[in-house]
Design brief:
With 155 residues, the protein is of the alpha+beta class. Helix content is 27%, strand content 35%.
Length: 155
């Protein structure tokens, strides 16, 4: 068996291998750079919603309003502000959900967080003491930002 079976002996082939065409280098570099730039643009335009799932208990509230007061069993994120969209899922036999938004955040004298939840509809019969989960859309973040933060943050 020959040790140099695939060795190219042609002078033209050797010349192309040792001196590649300038156009190939220029357009190849521009093409790869353009693909990387396009990937950055795509990752920066796609947004991901970060959500917080918080266990809650429904407190007494006036029945004629479209607002509900929710007591939280845990500390809340500082990113939760009025106007953020939210979905309340009640733990019942049939899983009931109520769409709405956060109308405000306040604290009791014992530093228990309370969320004022504005309902968009009154189709679900809600009673005091019901428990459930509040899902709040905290912020929109691009995929590029998420990748950048995950790569360059020290753990």
């Amino acid at each position: 068996m020959e040790p140099n079976k695939y060795k190219v002996r042609s002078e033209e082939a050797q010349e192309i291998i040792h001196n590649p065409p300038k156009g190939l280098l220029v357009w190849g570099g521009l093409g790869i750079g353009g693909l990387i730039f396009g990937l950055f643009i795509l990752l920066n335009t796609l947004k991901v919603h970060e959500t917080a799932n918080i266990p809650i208990t429904i407190l007494p509230f006036p029945s004629d309003t479209s607002f509900m007061i929710l007591s939280l069993n845990t500390a809340i994120s500082k990113n939760i502000k009025a106007g953020q969209p939210a979905r309340l899922s009640l733990n019942m036999e049939s899983k009931q959900t109520i769409n709405g938004d956060v109308a405000g955040v306040t604290f009791t004298e014992f530093n228990v967080p309370l969320i004022l939840f504005r309902k968009r509809h009154n189709l679900v019969d809600v009673k005091v003491g019901m428990i459930g989960t509040l899902e709040i859309a905290i912020q929109k973040q691009s995929l590029f930002d998420m990748l950048f933060k995950s790569i360059f943050t020290l753990s």
